[in-house]
Design a protein that fits this description.
Layout (H helix, E strand, L loop, with lengths): L8 E10 L4 E4 L6 E4 L7 H7 L7 E6 L13 E5 L14 E5 L5 E9 L3 E5 L9 E10 L1
Antiparallel strand pairs: 1-2, 1-3, 1-9, 4-9, 5-8, 6-7, 7-8
Length: about 140
């Protein structure tokens, strides 16, 4: 029986949960996720969990926050005067804004607090600081 190894392109179904059991992502109702193991297009520990599986086999893996999206960095949360945001941009808690960093790299900012005078933006990944648990089923090795 052939098992998945580094360099293989695979298709998997998955469900991701937080430690409190809330599901944050799933391939249910969608096509399987396709990726190349070792290509580092996903969290490396997710890719590694597929190694050794044969088509139809499943694995459950918990990935510590440091090995997923890293710790939540308080310095990545900043409060600005509301006038610093162009008036045509709709602001609401939970909205995602896109901005260019000092090096020109695009970054996503989540509006986490809003008042008439200020807006607080969080540049952390929404799953930063979270341990993630995945149920993964290898559908096929392409």
């Amino acid at each position: 029986m052939t098992t998945a190894k580094s360099g293989d392109t695979v298709r998997v179904h998955y469900a991701g949960r937080l430690t409190d059991g809330r599901e944050f992502d799933s391939s249910t109702g969608r096509d399987p996720l396709e990726f190349t193991i070792g290509g580092r297009s996903l969290i490396p520990a997710f890719e590694d969990a597929v190694i050794g599986l044969a088509s139809g086999e499943a694995a459950n893996v918990t990935i510590a926050s440091d090995d997923a999206y890293g710790p939540h960095r308080p310095e990545a949360v900043q409060t600005l005067e509301r006038t610093a945001i162009p008036a045509e941009i709709e602001l609401a808690v939970g909205n995602i804004l896109q901005a260019s960093g000092p090096d020109g790299q695009q970054m996503m900012l989540t509006v986490v607090e809003l008042s008439d005078e200020s807006v607080t933006l969080d540049a952390n990944h929404p799953l930063a600081g979270e341990d993630l648990t995945f149920d993964i089923e290898l559908v096929e090795i392409v």
